[in-house]
Amino acid sequence: MKRVWIALFGWTVALCVAAPARADGDGGLMEKFVKLLERVADEADANKPDCGKIGAALGKHLEEDAALIKDLKETISKVPPNQRKALEDFIKARYGKRIEAAHTKAAPYRACMTHPRVKKYADRIAQYASVDERRGR
What we know:
The protein is mainly alpha-helical.
């Protein structure tokens, strides 16, 4: 019985820690992150194929985006390893289609990764997101 209570307590703590990332539409970190991805995709699509314009558009939000990535990473890092799969499944179910659509639409951004302005944005964001979390994207 003690193990059951410990497991329930662990799950409750994980839910409380992950709660900001799980909020749907009310300013939660995950919703903000998905909106960031959608904005990046929209800006890349609207300014294609001009990498300079894409970089300038992204640069307007550089520090704000970097801070959001940092906050999200810190929040998710507090989720115990044994609870991360459940959180990942929740995120996929809730936001997966929007994330995939943004990823597809952001192709011009990825094509411009060597442009100095786009590279500056990508490098700054990468300071707060490890390769594992970006899954090579």
